[in-house]
Each structure stands twice: as C-alpha cells, then as structure tokens.
Amino acid sequence: MSDANSGVGTQLRGWDAATFRAASADPSLRSTVVALAILDSAPDWERLHARLNRLTLFVPTLRKRPLYGATGFSAPRLAVDPDFDLDVHVRRYRLPADAGWQGLLDDARRMSLTDFDRNRPLWEAALIEGLPGEQAAFLLKLHHSIADGAATVMIALSLFEFGVDTNPDEPVPPAAPESENVSVTDVTIANLTDNLKWGAELAVTSMRGALGLVRGTVSDPTQTWARAWNTVFSIGRFTSISDGPMSPVMTGRGTTYRFAAFNLPFAALRGAAKSRDLSVNDAFLAALAGGFDIYHRRHGVVVDELRINVPISLRGDPGDRTGQASNSVSIARFPFPIAGLSVGERMTAAHDLVSDWREEPALRLADPLAEVSWFVPVPMLAQAAQSSDVTASNVPGPPVPLYLAGAKMLAAYPLVATIGAAVNVTMVTYDGTAYVGISADDRAVPDLRELVEDLRTGFAEVVGDLVGPRERYAAPGA
To answer: What distance in Å separates the CA atoms of residue 15 and residue 366, rounded to the nearest whole number?
Structure first.
C-alpha cells in the first residue's frame, strides 16, 4: 500500500487486503493491534492532542478512510477522509477508583473487541487516568491491515518524545493532505483499472517466468526444474489447510478473547540466547514451548507439537517498504516441538525451523498468494486460521526511555487479537525490559490465569529467574 494524491486513493493489495476482507467477514478473525503504554503520570491533554494531530500528518494513513466500489469484489481503497476529525478517534476518561490494573486490561479488551467504523480511518486512541499511584495509560488501537507490529513501533516513535520537554530538533510536519469527495462510480472505475493493470502485470510476469523456464531448460535443465519444483512444493506447504489444531486441549474457537501481560528483564533473555550463540527470538519461542508444555501437562496430556504462526519481517528485502508505517511481513506456519526437550534443544529447534522457513520461496510470494485468496471463501480462510494453536511475535522496540506529552512511559504492552489461533503471544522490548502481551480465545483457554502462570514458568526456565510481576498485571477475570 502506498500513498496517492488522487481522490480515489490507493487500493489495498495483497496481505493487507486479505487481512481486511477476512476481518470484515468473520468476527473470529477480527484483526486489531492494541498498544498499551503505562505512564508515570497523566500527560498534558492539549499537548497530547497536538502530538496526535502531528502524528497523522507524518503518517497520512491515519487520515485515510476505506472507499468501496459497487461490485464488492475488490479490496477497499484508502483515501484521505474529507471529514477527518481527530476528536472522533481520540477520547479521554478516568477509571473508577476500584478498577485498578484489572479494570485497565478489561477496557483494553473491550476496545480490541469493538469493531472499527469502516467508513473512517482505521484507528482510535484513549487516554485513561485514575490508575494506582496517579499513573495513567495510553491505548492506541490499529487495524492490522494498515500496520504490523514493527509498523506500530514506528508509529509510536513518531508520537513519543525523548524527554519531558518537546524535542528541540523535531522536523516540521507536512501540511495536511488534500481530500475530496468521490462517488461509488469513481471508486468502481478506479478498482477496475487497478485490477486490469494488476492482471496485465501478472500476465507479463508469468510470461517472463515461462520464458526463463524455457531458457533454463535449454542451458541447465536439472537446476532450473529443481528450483521450479521447489517453488511449487513451497507454495503447497505455505497454503495447506489443516484439519484442525494440534492441541487436544485448546480446541474451542469463538469471537471473544481476554488479555494478560507480564514482563521480564530483557538482558536475561538476551543473555540466555547469546550463551548458546542464538537469537532472542529463539529464546522467546523456546520459553513459549516450555510454557505450553507445562500447560498441557497440567491438563493431563503430553503433546509433542503445536502448530505455530511466526510473523517474519520482510523489511530490508528487495522491494519491501522499509521505513513506512505499514505491513511488511509474511507468516511462517509450522509444527513446533514442545515436549521432551531441554531449554537448549527447544532454542535450537526454534532457530532451525525459522531459518528453514526464511528460505522458503513461498514466503516472499505472500502478497501474490493473498491476491488469490479473493477466490477462496472466507469460511475456508477461517478454517485455516483456526487450525493454528499459537501465534508468536517478537518485536524490537526502543532501547531508551520515551515520554508522551511530558509523562514518562514506564511499560509498553502489545495486545494483539488472536485472529483465529487459540493464543497470541507478542513480546516488545523497551528500555531494558521485555513486555509480553497475551490474548487467549475464551473457548480455547477458559483458565487464563493458569496459562499465564505456566508461560511465566516457561520464561523462567529460559532466563533462570522468576518472571513477573503477576500480581500487578493479572489476567482479566482471574
């Protein structure tokens, strides 16, 4: 997705379009990202309001609304909303005196489960006061079709500051983008034009591929056809639809989920990985494997593997959108061993599996394959999504303290919708601490407190110390 000056904007394509379509058609695939920032005090409201307005000028997607054609068989377009009103997207309120941290997570849950107004820009924010110790919270909710985890961090960096006072060398924001009213006919014609252009580009690409295959068959048939069949089989692995989840415990799927969160010292997690010459992501996945193994044993079963989704960033790849606040990610989906392994063996398994998937040719064909999903009924897409047990994402964040309109950010929790899986676990690192956000389908995990305890134990096994504090960021409803 790229910016455009035309009144009909730019059409969502590929992964972004597929995400929007699935989330709009099936509430179990609701696709929201909520960033929860804990602040040491309530920020100055007028200054925060100005910061948010400035943010929308640097990230114009936040001023763009979806536009729909007459046929319905095209992704929406994003164009600048002529009626954009910041106050529609931002609110401020105070928690009841007895709500505390529990009430905060409950509010974050309600915010996540409430769908977007699909005729306005796909985001909203809330400043929440009245937390214990005169602290406050800031919630930013984004539709997954306009931002992945890394893009959310990039958006936050445009909003936050490096000190109590405004950054003295901040760039001057651009002027507000121009907007205009457009008709359904205009949008339909633009969609048809784009679809014809996309079809022509696909035909040209296919022809070039066919010619390359012919030339390769003549010059080096063995290697050429080996690559071709490798790509075909890779696409098959990438698009295969499983019968159901691998967990015999986390089997239910519904349209609601609950949040939980905890934190741990990032240095300990990084040290555990470095001591084995592996990555933080390897340690993160190993901790999850240990936690889910413990959770299943709590329920009296031993499960060898769970099906896990791991977003893999394509930022830095040729043709990516590095530096933009948008999606630039593909999803690796594979069975992950959880039982009968030591911490080191789980970390090595994570490293090998993710490394293998990074080399899959289909991984970088995610956008073209997502275009094909328009011909796949949404129930089939839902079946594929709900056959996953866990989605696990590790997002590097800023290593230094940040401030929001004069208030220091103490913690940053990522709270991401389950999007069909039983559980989503996302970790963001900030200022020397790893913050873990958990969403769990209510039908799949009715005992969220127990799952949180087991995941904390899984992280403790990796870092060699207690992970918490649970008493402060407890699971809602526990």
So the answer is: 7
